[in-house]
Each structure stands twice: as structure tokens, then as C-alpha cells.
Design brief:
By secondary structure, this protein is an all-alpha fold. It has helices at residues 2-16, 24-38, 42-56, 60-72, 76-86, 95-111, 115-128, 131-147, 151-168, 175-207.
Length: 227
Amino acid sequence: MRSSLIIILSLMLCCSLPARAQQGDDQEQLGMAIEYFTSGKYHEALLIFQRLDKQYKLNDRFRAYIGLCHYYEWEYKEAAKYLDEVLPRLEALAPKERSVYYYTDAESHFLLEQYDEAIPLYEHVLLLGYDRDKGDVFYRLGFCYMFKEKWQEAADNFTAARDYYLKFRNTDDLSARMAQIERMIQGCRANIDEDENEDENVNDKEDVSPSYSYPQNTEASDPLPNQ
């Protein structure tokens, strides 16, 4: 996903700066920010982007870049704040570019342990992104549902991750992750079986009824003996 992000950023960023800023020192600053970003110097890039944003009230795509910088600086709360704000207004952009923003926003919420917020963002990536990246998305969705103790959904997503990796990214560097996925699937299935057994035990207890009737207390209803 990161390589896709850098390519998209390099191609699109210059188009995002207002025309009045695309000259002189600010244009040079923009080029420097791009260079910083692509070389992994996200803090330096962020400082320039924020200054230009403050000066020119940059558009939503540019603010998405700011969110990306916060993400790579491990500032997940700020990243989610920027991306949550601008994503609904970026529908006109190319699907592959939007998939990068959705994935980064989903990852930010995931790392903040906000799994309910992360799930629909990951699902957007599945609709927009490349097949080769979908294994990563299903992998994360598996953990989202696992942490929510929704074992069947977790197992389904881990299984989908395994299948996508095998079909689109079956490389040696993924061997450790593939082994982990198999363990996660087995763990989820064990929890599913345990939950089913508990449900059966509860149902068995509810179905048990006494095979005898308690004797009725007739003393109170009997007439008093004759004196």
C-alpha cells in the first residue's frame, strides 16, 4: 500500500496547490515537501504542508496528504481527524487514489483500537483497491472482528486473507504471516465450537422438565373435621 501511496502522491500533489501558490518560493517549498515525503521525512514534509494549508486554505485532497503525514509520524488521532473530515468529499477522485486514503484512515482507527470505525473504512478499500492489496485488508478485518469476539466473522476474513495472498501474493516473505493466519483461523474455530457447546448446554437445561409432580397441599382446602 505504501508504494501505491507514494506514486499517487507524486503524480497528484502538484495539481492540488492553488494556482496563486504555484510560483516562486511556495512552488519550491511544495517540491521540497514532496521530496521529503517520498524519502520518508514525514515530519519535515508535514511542517511545509501545514504552512501552505494555513496560508492558502488548501483543498480537501491536500488536507488528505496532511492526514497521511500524521499517519506516518504515528500521530494516528490527528491522521484520523483529517481523513475522516475530507473522505466524504473526495468521491470525484480516482478509485485507486481514494483507496489509499481509506486504508490509511482505517489503519489509524485500527491502531487507536477503534474497530467499529475501522471496519467500514476497510470495506471501502475492498471496493476500490487492487486485488493484490486485499489480503492485507482482509487480514486487518479478521483482527477487528476477533477483538470484538465475533469469531465467525473473524474466521471468514482470515480465510479470505489467506486465499487472496495465495492467489495474488504467494511469495516467500509472507510465509510467517500465512502460518499466523492458519493459527488465527484455528483459534477462531475453537471459540466458535466453544460458544456452540455453551449454547447447547443452556438449551439442554431449559428443556429439562420434572418427570414427577409435587404433591398438592390439601390440608388448607379440606373442611375441618367434625367436632
